[in-house]
Design goal:
With 325 residues, this protein is α/β, with parallel strands linked by helices. It contains 11 helices and 8 strands. The protein has 2 domains: 166 residues, Rossmann fold, CATH 3.40.50; 141 residues, Response regulator (Rossmann fold). Strands 2-1-3-4-5 form a 5-stranded parallel β-sheet, with helices on both faces. The N terminus and C terminus are likely disordered.
């Protein structure tokens, strides 16, 4: 696990290297004073990690002398755009945005750029070249890890597609995939990583994907309903679930438990409820994306943009993550 997490951290830095160069031309140097405002815009606080990252970012920004305005949009793209517009009106020099919808947020970002405001797209890509930077984890690697964990729990060797005592071409795994919110670009990357790892087993006829469904807002209750409907349609013939995060995995678990079924289930984000479920024999695997590392990186990028320091990629990376060359 530690080796896998290290790869995720390295992938995150690679994204900073590329996206950080897509930004706006450096502005005149500005010293961080109380009147210099940075806005934090989150899609929601129902997702446990966002509130924690808000706390970290606010603390880091205040250490640097910035005033901070932070809001969450309750999964409402229009509300989020309105909140961002207000932050710009309030004089924000930079924004860190966790977008509810990648396309909808593009309008707000383009308006911000016109006003000379730097935007860092945090963990979720926003569909416009108007962003100054995009920072995230190795998203396909997360999907690889989810599928890998479920395959191992089913008794397969992920490196060698071959039958097990239970699952063969004549009796393939009946696999359900619960994907993330359709408006979140990350969901597509997780799905691609999962499918990449599963492909040899699907091609060999050892796994059959019996259902694949996106879950609005990454919502656990929506996942429960979706899984209940899938189980009904499949007559409970389900052997495993790859769920795109812990919320969806816990929703699937609830529906399966109601049918007195126990199968391997993946998650992601290593939330408290998700980890507790693993300890109790519920979820099978979760993926840790350590926001304690990435949140300060985003703040460091914002500070670089506001200060207007024209540095090379390696120098920016060294400033963002001094312990990595």
């Amino acid at each position: 696990m530690s080796r896998q997490i290290t790869r995720l951290f390295v992938a995150a830095m690679a994204v900073v290297m590329i996206a950080g160069l897509l930004g706006v031309a450096p502005a005149a140097p500005v010293r961080a004073q109380a009147k210099t405002v940075v806005g934090l815009s989150f899609s929601d606080f129902e997702t446990p990690r966002w509130k924690q990252e808000d706390i970290i970012m606010q603390a880091e920004l205040k250490k640097l002398g910035y005033d901070v305005v932070s809001q969450q949009a309750n999964h409402d793209p229009k509300l989020q755009n309105d909140q961002i517009a207000t932050m710009i009106t309030q004089g924000a020099k930079a924004l860190i945005i966790v977008a509810q919808d990648a396309s909808a947020a593009a309008t707000a970002v383009d308006d911000a750029k016109k006003s000379g405001v730097f935007v860092v797209a945090y963990d979720r890509l926003i569909a416009t070249p108007g962003i100054a930077a995009y920072i995230t984890f190795g998203l396909e690697k997360v999907g690889n890890g989810q599928a890998d964990g479920v395959l191992k729990a089913l008794g397969f060797d992920p490196a060698k597609p071959g039958p097990t005592a239970k699952f063969t071409k004549d009796a393939p795994v009946q696999l359900v995939k619960l994907e993330g919110d359709p408006g979140d670009n990350n969901a597509k990357f997780f799905e691609a990583g999962q499918d990449e790892t599963l492909k040899p087993f699907v091609d060999a006829g050892l796994i059959k994907i019996v259902a694949r469904q996106n879950i609005q807002n990454w919502d656990q209750s929506n996942a429960v309903t979706a899984m209940e409907n899938i189980l009904t349609a499949a007559n409970n013939k389900v052997d495993a679930v790859i769920a795109a995060n812990d919320n969806l995995g816990l929703g699937a678990l609830q529906a399966l438990t109601a049918q007195k079924m126990s199968v391997p289930i993946s998650g992601q984000d290593a939330t408290g409820p998700g980890c507790n479920s693993i300890a109790k024999g519920g979820l099978t695997v979760t993926i840790l994306k350590d926001y304690r590392v990435m949140a300060p990186q985003a703040v460091a990028l914002v500070d670089e943009f506001i200060q207007g320091q024209d540095r090379s990629r390696s120098e920016v990376l060294q400033a963002v993550r001094p312990d990595r060359q």
